[in-house]
């Protein structure tokens, strides 16, 4: 079982830093490439750029909960939530067939 996880391409878990603006302020976010790929997918599904999606998410979190203590972790969890929702939608479409 662990070979599935251990054998993955190291490029998937290599980190990448991207610079973007959050609420008008320039910042850098460092995430693993797999998370960037998911964020790019989320943004594309929303019809926006990844920086725009991240900035909007940041604004909405501030509005709902205040400044997040660890925004990078929130982004990772957003990716997991997206995968969870996608998986549930896929399972529901299979069940409907």
TrEMBL record:
Domain of life per record: Bacteria
Residue ranges constituting the Ribbon-helix-helix domain according to the UniProt record: 16-81
One Pfam family per UniProt: RHH_4
Gene3D superfamilies recorded: protein bp1543
Name of this chain's protein: Ribbon-helix-helix domain-containing protein
Protein's organism: Roseibium aggregatum (strain ATCC 25650 / DSM 13394 / JCM 20685 / NBRC 16684 / NCIMB 2208 / IAM 12614 / B1) (Stappia aggregata)
